[in-house]
Amino acid sequence: VKIIQGYVSTQVLHVCWKEFLDALQHNVTNLEDIYCRHAEYVHKCVLRCLLTPKAQAVLNLILDALKCILRFHLQLRTPKSCSFRSLKHSYLEFARISNFLYRVVVKLVEKGYQPHLENFLVRLNFNGFYKT
Predict the structure, then answer these.
(1) Could you tell me the pLDDT band of residue 22, with boundaries at 50, 70 and 90?
(2) Which end of the chain is more exposed for a tag (fewer CB within 10 A), N or C?
(3) Where is the Gamma tubulin complex component C-terminal domain (predicted)?
């Protein structure tokens, strides 16, 4: 969760906003220019939040990983109705999804698709967990 928060904070709240402010200072002469710069800003935010059809698969993997985290948390909060087997299953499912997510993002970064994903990749593998 912190990885996603950090990525969105860096790539959307800071980078896109800085680019928007720079565009407003240097590329605006009338109201139409302001409108265009704002539309570009919104487009970049949507792209970097993985809300485009091309990024849907990556977003779905992230959402699936978050669902596993929530399920695991719920299982821990209700220990009487939860077995070790179900905890292990949730953990293994999360591990499978997160490993696949890592491999997918590595491939996208290698191909140059959405360069900002490199920031997400660095955050995801900060401690070298996924490197084999």
Answers:
(1) very high
(2) C
(3) 1-130
Written as one letter, the residue type at 31 is L
Name the amino acid, one letter, at 102.
Answer: Y
**Long-range contacts, stretch 12-20, CB < 8 angstroms, 24+ apart:** 12/45, 12/48, 12/49, 15/48, 15/116, 16/41, 16/44, 16/45, 16/48, 17/41, 19/44, 20/44
Question: What would you report as the CA-atom Rg of the chain, rounded to the nearest whole angstrom?
Answer: 19
Q: What is the pTM of this model?
A: 0.81
Q: Are 86 and 75 in contact (CB under 8 A)?
A: yes
Q: Domains of the chain: which residue ranges?
A: 55-114
Q: Taking Cα atoms as reference points, which of 90, 105, 109 lies closest to residue 57? A: 105
Q: ∠ CA 93-132-86 to the nearest 5 degrees?
A: 15
Q: How far apart are CA 19 and CA 127, in angstroms?
A: 30
Q: Report, as an integer, the average pLDDT of 100-129.
A: 86
